[in-house]
Amino acid sequence: EIVIGASNGRMVRFDENEIRAMGRSSSGVKGIELDGSFVVGAEVVNSGQYILIVTEKGYGKKTVIDEYRLTHRGSKGVRAFNVTEKNGMMAALKCVNEGNDYDVIVVTNSGIIMKMPGEQISTLKRATQGVRLINSLMLIMDFSTWGHEVFWVRIAPIIISNCSKEFLGKE
């Protein structure tokens, strides 16, 4: 299945077989009806995985992909995130697995980088606002006053080598 998220908080989830094979010079097919917004992420997902959503003002959440109903490509989709003035528009949509073997790296438009463990992000229902992800950054400076917004989000797997296990005291 394929999911596509838009900045207005909507997401479409559809079967990959709805996209037919085309030649190199073709224009493609419509994935989501945007209504003045723009695409913030597209992922290939399987049942049981999670969708991680981060907003431009630093809010985010994880939701089980099965909470989003299957739609057809080209539709407006379903509400994936409750966009408000407080949390801002959707900035990123990523697919993550159930375990906590990954870190989330968030970069703002002013160059501030923050890395947090995936286990610290709350798992919430489909149409909720989410929780503050970069709380410590918000204590230092007010996003709305300084114009800081989430610019880039990446999922980084945690890889622990045998040397690291010995150093950390893990077997």
Give a verbal description of the structure.
The protein is mainly beta. It has helices at 135-140, 143-146, 162-168; strands spanning 2-6, 10-14, 39-44, 50-55, 59-64, 78-79, 90-96, 102-108, 113-117, 131-132, 150-157. The model has no long low-confidence stretch (mean pLDDT 83).
Q: Which stretches are poorly predicted, pLDDT < 50 over at least 5 residues?
A: none
The share of residues in extended strands comes to: 25-35%
The coarse silhouette is globular
Largest pleated sheet: 4 strands, antiparallel
Total count of helical runs of at least 4 residues: 3
The percentage helix is under 10%
Taking the alpha carbons of the first and last residues, their distance comes to 37 Å
- How many distinct beta strands? 11
Rg from C-alpha positions? 17 Å
Note the run of SSEs as H and E.
Answer: EEEEEEEEEEHHEH
Mean pLDDT: 83
In terms of structural class, how would the helical and strand content be classed?
A: mainly beta
Strand order, sheet with most strands: 3-1-2-6
Question: Which descriptors would you attach to this protein?
Answer:
four-stranded antiparallel β-sheet; about 170 residues; single chain; mainly beta; globular; 3 helices
Short description:
This protein is mainly beta.
Strand-helix topology:
Layout: E1 2-6, E2 10-14, E3 39-44, E4 50-55, E5 59-64, E6 78-79, E7 90-96, E8 102-108, E9 113-117, E10 131-132, H1 135-140, H2 143-146, E11 150-157, H3 162-168
Antiparallel strand pairs: 1-2, 1-3, 2-6, 4-5, 4-7, 5-10, 8-9, 8-11
